[in-house]
Amino acid sequence: MDNNSHRFLWVLCLLAMGVIGSPLVAQQASSAASPSNTGGSGNGQGISRTIGKPYAADQISTTTQTLADGTKITHTSLQRIFQDSEGRMRREFYRSGTDTSGQDELPQSVRIYDPLAGVNYTLNPRDHTAQKEPIRRPTLPPVSQTTGAQVNRAPTHSVEWEITREDLGTQVIEGLEAKGKRITRTIPAGAEGNDQPIQITDEFWVSPDAPGVLMTIINDPRRGETVTRLTNIVFEEPPAELFQVPADYTLKELQTVPKPEPPSD
Asked: In CATH, what number is assigned to the domain containing residue 230?
């Protein structure tokens, strides 16, 4: 699942929990969860950055597709996540495969988000190189020159999707009590060339004591089932060197090109 899909699902989660309710807040929540605000560290997958609450956790995502003859195809990916009490975040991305054995190998890449220094680092542990670039700030909606209010241009769809929400109660996940919500989206027949309605369910389990969404279960008949969960959560200060570029790495600085301002009305 790509980053845009994860950001969309995270906003759906906030909507389900009643955290956001207006188009403007939803748009700002989507921006806040995007890589441009978190250094591309994947916060859109439901990981929050809270200053003063250090932790380490593994995020394991498993996608299972079942073919017409019953054959199952399974892919599992692993990310190891660290955050210090100052809000610095490190994500280690491991090779995707059929299991999480990648945690015993070098990560494919590492992203370090340092809001104090205002920079992101991308590390390649295999050739000991690193890239440094300034943190890109999210762009707010344009402001109307006549009313002074922010203008929201929500995408329009020719066919309305039916969306329902369901409270799933509570359960204990990783030793934490979590509340669950399920969002069901129904794509009408003919909307995407489908001769029958397509039903997609997005299930979220959150806890106020967790650093993010503890578990998501996404069922989409076009792509299969994806289960993502946080595990091995430890609430303590990670080593400071995890948020620094090692001395034996070759560092290259990248300059970002400012994005053009969107037109106002």
From this structure: 2.50.20.10
Give CA torsion, residues 207, 2, 158, 11, to 10 deg. Answer: 20
Residues 82 and 90 sit within 8 Å (Cβ to Cβ): yes
Specify the DSSP element, H or E, that contains 114.
strand 109-114
Q: Decide: 65 and 99 in contact? Cβ < 8 Å.
A: no
φ, ψ of residue 72 in degrees (nearest 5):
-110, 135
In angstroms and rounded to an integer, the radius of gyration of the C-alpha atoms of the chain is 20
> What are the residues whose beta carbons fall under 8 Å from the beta carbon of 101, sequence distance 6 or more?
none
CB 187 within 8 A of CB 197: yes
d(CA 234, CA 170): 22
Question: How many domains in the chain?
Answer: 1
Q: Is residue 35 in some structural domain?
A: yes
9, 21, 212, 246: CA torsion to nearest 10: 80
| Average pLDDT along the chain, 265 residues, taken 10 residues at a time | 44 42 34 36 49 89 93 94 95 75 74 94 95 80 55 55 94 95 94 91 94 94 94 95 95 71 57
Whether 259 is in a domain gets the answer no
d(CA 231, CA 256): 35
Cut 0.90: pTM above it: no
CB 82 within 8 A of CB 242: yes
Supply 81's token pair. Answer: 């996540």
Look up the domain containing 191 and give its range: 3-253
